[in-house]
Write a structure and sequence with these properties.
Structural class: mainly alpha
Length: about 400
């Protein structure tokens, strides 16, 4: 029974740490463009500054994955948390656009390191037959940070200003540093066979590539929504409580994760995938016909059951198909897909927002879904995606 236990002192601390590192960065994201413009950056430059974190994170992922398989998880989490805290303190005192760029790069380094290290650290503490369930809880904490922190940041900014909101993000990153001090298992690397140590530097874990592509495709509509839903509602003159969208999303995701926790390790990947794609479609239909708050509820439920749930399923599957001594590289490959979705979502959303009628914004985004089916159709046998 002890071997099948998910919630231990160390795993609970890592789960709360995951919420903290995600909240620290996600609280900043919806505010950074406005803050950059408030200190003199043009709209175009502010957009580049906002993207600098994700681009840095994307480029640093392979290195972070290799480091995670070779260095103590505690040490890397401490460094990552320190970089997050330093970057956020930098935002608080920044007076010029170039300073914000520097701190966005540091933010990207810290975010990439924390995301891979914390996930790999937890997966190493889980029984292999409970990885799906355990990583489901991890994904839930990440998703709650993605949903709650932006709403919290916007609230604090509106009432107290940008720098006060940034101070809240600093509290999250400081809490992460404190939490990891109490984790007993320091996450020492698994000793490799002599021949494995001579392997070349690899950017990705090959078996995880199709999973990374799938989560990238599924995440594009979500991150396009995160970036443009406020402008979308305003442009269409819709009378809905748009500010509650991500709160509803977080609540629904929490309920789904708890309700489905016993199925993450038993239901094949393909069933989650097709259910997730259908749910994403329902969410985008709700956003297309967003004429009242009931449709807002449908949209939030749809995206929570689509992207929100598939985040955990894909991450757990990535860890299961990769060898135990390459769990860090598997996580970095998964997060490369996530980073690409975070970068491409706002870019594709921006192109659509300026090129098509507003009522066609989400029908156009629906065209992403068949690509996920195509990736699965090509790779599901050779990459053994049905291991779940």
């Amino acid at each position: 029974m002890a071997k099948s236990k998910i919630f231990t002192r160390d795993s609970v601390l890592i789960l709360f740490g995951a919420f903290c590192y995600m909240s620290a960065s996600m609280l900043i994201n919806p505010l950074i463009v406005g803050f950059s413009r408030s200190i003199g950056a043009s709209a175009a430059i502010a957009g580049v500054m906002a993207a600098a974190m994700n681009l840095t994170s994307l480029l640093f992922r392979p290195i972070a994955g290799q480091m995670t398989d070779r260095v103590s998880k505690y040490r890397l989490a401490f460094i990552g948390g320190g970089l997050l805290l330093l970057s956020i303190l930098g935002y608080i005192v920044a007076q010029a656009a170039w300073q914000v760029v520097v701190f966005r790069v540091l933010n990207g380094l810290g975010f990439a390191l924390c995301s891979i290290v914390m996930a790999t650290w937890l997966s190493g503490l889980l029984p292999r037959d409970r990885v799906g369930t355990g990583m489901g809880y991890y994904g839930m904490m990440n998703a709650l940070g993605m949903a709650i922190a932006p709403a919290m940041g916007i609230f604090l900014y509106r009432h107290f200003g940008y720098r006060a909101a940034f101070m809240c993000a600093a509290v999250f990153s400081g809490t992460l540093i404190i939490l990891i001090q109490f984790i007993l298992n320091r996450g020492l690397p698994i000793k490799r066979a002599p021949q494995a140590k001579k392997g070349k530097f690899r950017i990705v874990q090959k078996k995880v590539v199709p999973i990374a592509l799938i989560i990238m495709i599924i995440s594009i509509p979500y991150f396009a929504t995160q970036a443009y839903i406020v402008e979308y509602v305003a442009a269409r003159h819709l009378h809905v409580a748009v500010g509650s969208f991500f709160i509803i999303y977080a609540i629904v995701l929490l309920v789904l994760r708890l309700g489905l926790k016993n199925y993450f390790d038993t239901v094949p990947f393909k069933y989650f995938l097709f259910a997730g794609l259908l749910s994403n479609l329902v969410g985008m239909v709700g956003l297309t016909f967003l004429y009242n708050n009931w449709m807002l509820l449908v949209a939030a439920i749809g995206l929570a059951g689509g992207y929100g749930l598939m985040y955990s399923v894909c991450q757990a599957t990535a860890l299961l198909v990769a060898p135990m001594d390459e769990q860090g590289l598997a996580n970095s490959t998964f997060y490369i897909g996530m980073d690409l979705g975070m970068v491409l979502g706002p870019i594709i959303g921006g192109l659509l927002y300026s090129a098509v009628p507003y009522s066609w914004f989400y029908p156009a985004l629906m065209l992403t879904l068949p690509f996920a089916i195509l990736v699965f159709a090509i790779y599901h046998r050779s990459m053994q995606l049905k291991v779940r």
